[in-house]
Amino acid sequence: MSKILISGGAGFIGGNYVRRLLTGAYGPVPDEVVVLDKLTYAGNLDNLAPVTSHPSYRFVQGDIADSALLATLLTDTTQVVNFAAETHVDRSIDSSAAFVDTNVVGTQRLLEAVRQAGVPRMVHVSTDEVYGSIDEGSWTESWPLEPNSPYAASKASADLMVRAYARTHGLNVSITRCSNNYGPYQYPEKVIPLFVTTLLGGGSVPLYGDGLNVRDWLHVDDHCRGISLVLDKGQPGEAYNIGGGQELTNRQLTGLLLEACGADWSQVRQVPDRKGHDRRYSLDDSKLRALGYRPGTAFTQGLAETVAWYRDNPSWWRPLLAAAAA
Length: 326
Ligand code: NAD
Description:
The protein is α/β, with parallel strands linked by helices and 326 residues long. 40% of the residues lie in helices and 18% in strands.
């Protein structure tokens, strides 16, 4: 009997992972797929609508910091993948408390519950932002963690706790650190869905500072395939970078999105730079490539499909924008 618990599975990336897992993209579907999600503003059961009738699927609304709930859910669990997090850098600049509660304390409670329940395998999903900012070259997994935003600091703290549970308790847990993701079902506060939904409605979009900050964009399908590979083949206590997408300045990305939405630069307004804005992220993912990973979605095609998805699915994002504005 195989049972996987996916925390944060109603969010953008966790939802993608659950949908693909339940449609057999990663091999035989586990007997039980338990999605644990607090359903914060970023959690959305509509993200899971395509698979909720699958007989293996079960949803539980709850918090990864709830040790008693975890103890009941983790019985007989064979694998855990943790996506649950507060994820928006701008929100962490306004207030970092929830980031510590979920990303640091929540992760520690989950690790402890996994240890107590004797779960044989876990992957913790982290981010390239834990490394800080790099002007030239690319980070390997052995670079120091030098986070700059409260979001990145909370994720780096979690990574260190994961490492400690692997080293101290022998927990079979690995970490993944991915670059910026794009794709369908991303909450429309993040740059690509924010820009696309605004531009399609004829509005203007904000470009931070000089627009020359560089991000490496990877399709969410590729990220999730990387996570599945690490779950199968990753070593305990090891971190794996997941990258290999497309490096672009924010200005270049904006130009592509304007073109895809039939808009022009008159719909872009320059705004003061984000506080502590990291200049560039870049990952060396050769460690994961040695396990067989290759990104499969060409950026131009993936971006066109993503823009088309938001254009075709206003019933998914309009209620989210309305709720955020209320
Ligand atoms: P998201 O904000 O779309 O989803 C986060 C999910 O976690 C939501 O469903 C939310 O309800 C849930 N959640 C929050 N707090 C919780 C708690 N205490 N208990 C249970 N559930 C809780 O985020 P995402 O973009 O899907 O990111 C998923 C993971 O991937 C995060 O750990 C993030 O740090 C990491 N990551 C994201 C990116 C990216 O570009 N989006 C890149 C690299 C890594």
